[in-house]
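B., you asked whether I could sanity-check this one before it goes into the benchmark set. Here's the sequence:
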Amino acid sequence: MDSTTAYILEPLDDTALPQLLQLDQLCFGGHWGEQSYRAELERNCSIVLGAFLGENLQPNSFSKNLVGFGILWCIEDEAHIISLAVHPDHQRRGLGKRILIELLNQARDFGCAWATLEVKASNQSAIHLYESVGFQRLGERKGYYNGEDAWVYWKKPI
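And here's what the prediction gave me:
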């Protein structure tokens, strides 16, 4: 990828469902189904953000190929990150961090004061990402991910 390539972040709608499902399959092995993603896209308290590949930094000059996404719930003053995925071909380029920061910015604008999430204890890449933006480990949920432990993280303030 050359220096003129950028990622465009924008809210997703139901036209993104097929690509959300493909990216879910690739990144998570098909963890969620169409109904789950559709519910997130329709839920008033959800922020669903997609990342698309842009060319030459021109307005509207991006492909409609989804290469990453993040989903966050805003409940009262808490932002709860429920999913974050980046296509393997686009990892380690700062895209996950960019999606995460934009989700948190939008949650703060929505009125959230702090954020939480769960992450597989074995997912060192994600743990490093979350800690790099100030999340701190708060606890553990035994067997949360089909028998694998999850670590609970929080960030206050956002």
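One thing to flag: The chain has a mean pLDDT of 91. Otherwise nothing jumped out at me.
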